[in-house]
Amino acid sequence: MEGLKIGDANLVVYLHPSKSNNVSDAVATQLSSLLFKFNESLDGVLLAYEPDVLGNLGTILPGIHPYFGVKLKSKLLLFNPKPEMLLEGKVVKISQQAIHMIVLGFSSAVIVEEDIREEFRYKIKRGKGSYVSGSQKKHKIKFGTIVRFLVKSFDEEVLHLSGSLLSTNTGSASWLHTNSEDVSQDNSNTKRRKEDEGRDNIVELSKRAISEEAVPLNTNPQTKKSKKRKGNDS
Amino acid sequence: MLLSRGREKERKRERERERENNKLRSLQLICCIIMGVQLAEGHQVEMSDVNYTDLEVSYHVRDALKSARLGQSDSYHELIGVLHHTERLAPDEVAMLVTSLKALSGAVSYIDSDHHKMLLSSISGMSLWNYGPDVMDVLVELVVALAAVSGKYLHLCLDMLVRNFVPPLSFLRLLQQPRGLAKKEQVLSRVHTALKEIADLVPLAPLRLEQVVKERMPHRSSKQPWILSVIYVENMLRLDGGAMGDLVGRTMLVEVINRIVELDVEIGWDELLIDDSNKGMFEMELEEGGMSSEAEIGKEKISKDTSNQKTLSGNDVAEHLDLLMVFIFEHLNLCYESGRLDQVFEVLLLSFQSTVLHAYKSKFSQFVMFYACSLDPENCGTRFANMLVDIYKNSTFVLEWRMGAVSYLASYLSRANFVSASYVVTIVESLVDWCLTYCKSQKGETNPKTHRVFYSGIQAIMYILCFRMRSALGVPCNETKLSLLPIRAILKHSLNPLKVCLPSIVHEFLQQAKAARLFSVAEDFPLLGVPESEISGDFGGLERLDMFFPFDPYLLKNSDRFIRPNFIYWSMVRTIYADDDEDEDGDQSEGSIDEDIEDGGRDDDIALDEFDNSLNKMSITPKSNGFGSRLQGHKQMPSRIRPSACPESL
């Protein structure tokens, strides 16, 4: 599956002096507050982190609040799906109008009727709906199926994906894996290409993280600027 | 007989036909609307010509939505018009609304936040309380579909559902009737099911829901009736107890506790405090007769001064709080029965530390902890006491918090009948150890301000022993432990705790210690019987933390039934010196005491049933009144907070 990347980042976490007796817990709390939220600085949704505090010395942040900055290097697992990426999700609801899925257990995805290729027809058997391929009868999408789909858009605020099954390399992941050599070959080529690109991105991110100044991760509202505010300021 | 059955069947068929016709007519109407054709009066269309499936109607709605994007919004506006029908809907209108909403559910992917603002605002403005079950079902289906189709509508849908937690104002009177309660259940069950469905489809929806619930919580200063706030809290607790409890329960509980604290602090201490601070807390509880007469006087005052806004608003707040306490106690009970109490208690502990402990002389909020501890004394009860001991001993905490913690500890151990005497002795040992270490590190003289943490600790020890000494001495190993405690050394220290602590507690403690022969009181402490000195009580500071006993008798009427069976009233405590007096008095007085106990047992057995055996057979002073009448006295409000008269269930 695409959309996942691992990056090394140099970070500075600003902590309140009251947290100085247990820095590692305080750092973990700060980093945890970023989990499952899209972060522009990290260019993705943080899913996991592995921090390594660099040294015992903290930098005091000048100002009224004497926050101190802890420098750390952290390995980050990020999720940032882009249009045309191939993702997989588990079907949690299916109706003629839409297929609802959950990706990686936290992100919701929906494929509406117009984005399902005509090959699939909606059928109801014993009260349960499913999309069945007209040409390949065994190619079915029903409740619980893992579906491979193309990303159309990603709502960064709610982490909601809009997907499509128009491409032939999409559909039930297990069926695609076992029955469609051509598709899977195409798929693997595309995937390899994308993976290479992704790896390059990771290397680029880590290079940038190392070469550039460390990204401050202080969640102190006084120093944080929202996206809107930035827009207004500029 | 057969004829009547036949008629019934005929009627049934007629009703079915009518329903079918309604449905067809509504389909016909909606198609006409969508196609931009007004159905003129008297214009007849053959019913047999109209036969549309839900999907077909949905396609028409899609066309209407598409055309609205292109600027042709006639059919779109007609559709919105249908959604605005709320009051007294005719069967036709109901069928039309159901069909429209169902069709919209199938067309949610065509809704555009820029072009269909009016439609979205109409949907979000709909109240489930205004409709019957048929409309409710399709409306909820539409909201779930809308929330899942795009992240843009998630907040709107959650907000709409949360607003349905409370009924419209016009509905409040109906809530006191059975059909109102049935309606309430119809709405709320659908709302909570919808929230769960959304959470199943959008895993991060509970995060948003927490925010929405917090934002929508009726504000205390709002002019809405407080009963709405109670219903809202009921919903919050339902969220905690429901399928999403693991995800949102923490926030819900914390918010509910915050609301309870908010109301608690609104009831001023001035209304509860008896001005004479010399009067000990023991006397306050002992004087049943006096108390009831005080209450009577208070009642008269209130009835005479009905224009007094403060008193009336105070009562209102107390009633509000009382009902909230009933809900949270019932909720905790359910959590205990379902095995979730441990998890919930963790949240309560954190919430207690962050809010209740710091609230200035909180009066009722702390009883949430008390009740939770009573449900599981071994686990929750012990954790609560240990946490308070830890806060008291931890020098990194602010002094006032530490003093507050030890006050809570003293009051809790004294009043909770579910805490074993052995555990009480263990905690007392721990406090004595700390106080002794403190004494050893100090060489100065009496100074209430500098050593206030120490004085609050030693006062706590004495207070606990006033209540629990006799039951503790009932166990042989405890007797040894207590006699070995270096209390004498602490009391004799140059810091002079006996001069600083509250005289009523010192007096009571020394009397009991003398009777128990813990140390030689007469020789070492000639203070016995001496009135309050100038410095006594000084360590409490302006906040008078020296006389803060958070678990003093509970004063809210409806929720009292949860606390009373677990509570030790001073009148139930049998002191050691009372035993000695009885021994001296002889057989005659014993007989009269037994009679008292028997009377009490007949009149009210709720408190004594669960109290330990030694306390079970206690006689109660003053002797002039029977125990039953005394318990009746406790039920009287010893303050100006009058018993609430809220409906039992809403």
Automatic annotation (TrEMBL), chain A:
<feature type="compositionally biased region" description="Polar residues">
    <location>
        <begin position="177"/>
        <end position="188"/>
    </location>
</feature>
<feature type="compositionally biased region" description="Basic residues">
    <location>
        <begin position="224"/>
        <end position="234"/>
    </location>
</feature>
<dbReference type="GO" id="GO:0006362">
    <property type="term" value="P:transcription elongation by RNA polymerase I"/>
</dbReference>
<keyword id="KW-0539">Nucleus</keyword>
<protein>
    <recommendedName>
        <fullName>DNA-directed RNA polymerase subunit</fullName>
    </recommendedName>
</protein>
<feature type="region of interest" description="Disordered">
    <location>
        <begin position="177"/>
        <end position="234"/>
    </location>
</feature>
<keyword id="KW-0804">Transcription</keyword>
<comment type="function">
    <text>DNA-dependent RNA polymerase which catalyzes the transcription of DNA into RNA using the four ribonucleoside triphosphates as substrates.</text>
</comment>
<dbReference type="InterPro" id="IPR045113">
    <property type="entry name" value="Rpb7-like"/>
</dbReference>
<dbReference type="GO" id="GO:0006352">
    <property type="term" value="P:DNA-templated transcription initiation"/>
</dbReference>
<feature type="compositionally biased region" description="Basic and acidic residues">
    <location>
        <begin position="193"/>
        <end position="211"/>
    </location>
</feature>
<dbReference type="GO" id="GO:0005736">
    <property type="term" value="C:RNA polymerase I complex"/>
</dbReference>
<keyword id="KW-0240">DNA-directed RNA polymerase</keyword>
<dbReference type="InterPro" id="IPR036898">
    <property type="entry name" value="RNA_pol_Rpb7-like_N_sf"/>
</dbReference>
TrEMBL record, chain B:
<keyword id="KW-0648">Protein biosynthesis</keyword>
<dbReference type="GO" id="GO:0006361">
    <property type="term" value="P:transcription initiation at RNA polymerase I promoter"/>
</dbReference>
<protein>
    <submittedName>
        <fullName>RNA polymerase I-specific transcription initiation factor RRN3</fullName>
    </submittedName>
</protein>
<feature type="region of interest" description="Disordered">
    <location>
        <begin position="581"/>
        <end position="650"/>
    </location>
</feature>
<dbReference type="GO" id="GO:0005634">
    <property type="term" value="C:nucleus"/>
</dbReference>
<dbReference type="GO" id="GO:0001042">
    <property type="term" value="F:RNA polymerase I core binding"/>
</dbReference>
<keyword id="KW-0396">Initiation factor</keyword>
<dbReference type="GO" id="GO:0003743">
    <property type="term" value="F:translation initiation factor activity"/>
</dbReference>
<feature type="compositionally biased region" description="Acidic residues">
    <location>
        <begin position="581"/>
        <end position="598"/>
    </location>
</feature>
<dbReference type="GO" id="GO:0001181">
    <property type="term" value="F:RNA polymerase I general transcription initiation factor activity"/>
</dbReference>
<feature type="compositionally biased region" description="Polar residues">
    <location>
        <begin position="613"/>
        <end position="627"/>
    </location>
</feature>
<dbReference type="InterPro" id="IPR007991">
    <property type="entry name" value="RNA_pol_I_trans_ini_fac_RRN3"/>
</dbReference>
<dbReference type="Pfam" id="PF05327">
    <property type="entry name" value="RRN3"/>
</dbReference>
<comment type="similarity">
    <text>Belongs to the RRN3 family.</text>
</comment>
